[in-house]
Specification:
The protein is built from three helices and five strands. It has helices at residues 56-64, 84-103, 116-135; strands at residues 4-6, 12-14, 18-23, 39-45, 73-78. Strands 3-4-5 form a three-stranded antiparallel β-sheet, with helices on one face. Strands 1-2 form a two-stranded antiparallel ribbon. The radius of gyration is 29 Å and the shape is elongated.
Length: 142
Amino acid sequence: MADSIPITDEIALDADEIVWRFVRASGPGGQNVNKVSSAVQLRFDVAQSPSLPEEVRPRLMALAGKRMTGDGVLVIDARRFRTQVRNRDDALERLVALVRDAAIPPTVRKKARTPASVKRKRLEDKRKRAALKASRKKVDDT
């Protein structure tokens, strides 16, 4: 096994699972921007990764949103910096942050119980309102 990228205490991604592509970036850089491929495209196959636990996989796919391809590959573009090394580090940091967020299980919402005192007060107010409206009715003389 090659180098591993630690995510949490239980999860570490195999560095061989990450595919790097280097492309020319737009933006600042002068003439250098036309010669050097400084932008980085990180590709990580979420659907087939043996490093990811099964419960993390769907959460990661949901968190990734538009960055996921149809066949379950996460694509992260990094072109913020002028050097390839910094863009590569930026893409890797973003991947680690995304997987770390997906590793946290969502908290289960517990349905709140309405207190008995609140129910009693609501019914009492309802009775008072009904009595008030009943007192406004016309009296039948028959």
